Amino acid sequence: MNDTSVHQYRLYVVGDTPAGQRARDNFKIIQEVILSGNAELEVVDVLKSPERAEMDRIVAVPALVRIEPPPSFKIIGDLSDSAHLRSFFAVAGGNDSPQEDGT
Predict the structure, then answer these.
(1) Mean pLDDT over residues 42-54, rounded?
(2) Domain limits at 31?
(3) pTM of full prediction above 0.85
């Protein structure tokens, strides 16, 4: 990516489930490979902070929300679908941005 600003993401999980752990692990790879280490991740456990999930309209987990830079996008799942992720992490402003449901 050519952008030097820090990208901010929020990952919603339920406790320490295998899918949530895979999503965390996959984000670490994405952070280094796609985002060149230029990203911050906040992990939110929806059991401990259900109001945060409601605020971001999270209905399934794990769910990743891009907070910055705008626009905000969501992707549902353990972040293992590489083709889907390329679209999700595309440079802001392109026409290849995913729909809000992550497709």
Answers:
(1) 96
(2) 7-88
(3) no
